[in-house]
Amino acid sequence: MSCPALPPTADAAEVLSVRSGDGKSFYSYSTRLGIKQAYYLLNINGGTRPYAFSLTKPFVVVEPSYPGTRVSFKVIPKAVGTTILTVKDTKGNTMVREIVVYDPGAQPLALSALPDAGNPVAVGQRRGFGVPGGKPPYTVTASNPSAVTIQQQSAGQYAVTGRQAGVVGIVAKDSAGTTRELSLIVRNLTTLTLAAPSALTVGPTGTAAIRVLSGQGGVAPYRATVSGNQLQVNATQFQMAPRAKGTATITVWDSKGTTATQVITVQ
Description:
The protein is an all-beta fold. The protein has three domains: 12-102, Immunoglobulin-like, CATH 2.60.40.1080; 121-187, Immunoglobulin-like (Sandwich), CATH 2.60.40.10; 193-266, Immunoglobulin-like (Sandwich). The protein contains no helices and 24 strands. It has strands at residues 17-18, 30-34, 40-45, 52-55, 60-64, 72-77, 81-88, 94-102, 121-122, 126-130, 138-142, 148-154, 157-162, 166-174, 179-187, 193-195, 199-200, 211-212, 214-216, 223-226, 231-234, 239-242, 246-253, 259-266. Strands 1-3-6-5 form a four-stranded antiparallel sheet, with no helix packed on it. A four-stranded mixed sheet has the order 2-8-7-4, with no helix packed on it. It has a four-stranded mixed sheet with strand order 9-15-14-11, with no helix packed on it. It starts with 16 loop residues before the first strand and ends with a strand.
């Protein structure tokens, strides 16, 4: 009775690996290296020397750690970013490591002043936010582009406009590949309404027959205007004082430009 042939296996001596010692920085597939350190030692074992190195991006330089060595190398950080280091021996055996060069003194990437759940963005409303830290330039995207529109105002400054109610992820990514994501709530705009008496009476001379006008809904802050001389309106405190008999129209504007009007008769 014959047994099925086993698949060929690589000779242990041909498998490239990282030796103990200073090479421990490269044990895992992804390695973080600080940009301010002079170099990191990479000690290689296995395969058939000499070794060759290739990089997807020139964020590090690999060179022998001392003259004549064929197994110990310096990995020297040159720029912040992510690159893939491939080590290859003369027989074509390879070992791959992702190297992330970072700046330990830099501020972490963040989304600053992005409206939170306690202060959501209304549909049609435009709000500003910033992207500090990390390594500029940045790209800022939305998980649902139909829900919001994002526009860059200046370096690190952006504006988001609500288009559709719901929860959308805002993702900032810097040139080093670091990402930061926060959730943004977009709500439907409530209708702007006015609460004010329909009629006011002119009081005796010298009295201040003040009544309060209030704006509800919409997007604060509000401002108020009045047509005619029958009413005087304090647009800050929203107080109305009748001045002469007749009719007057009060118009209140919210920060989005939505208006609500009410006609008031002064008796």
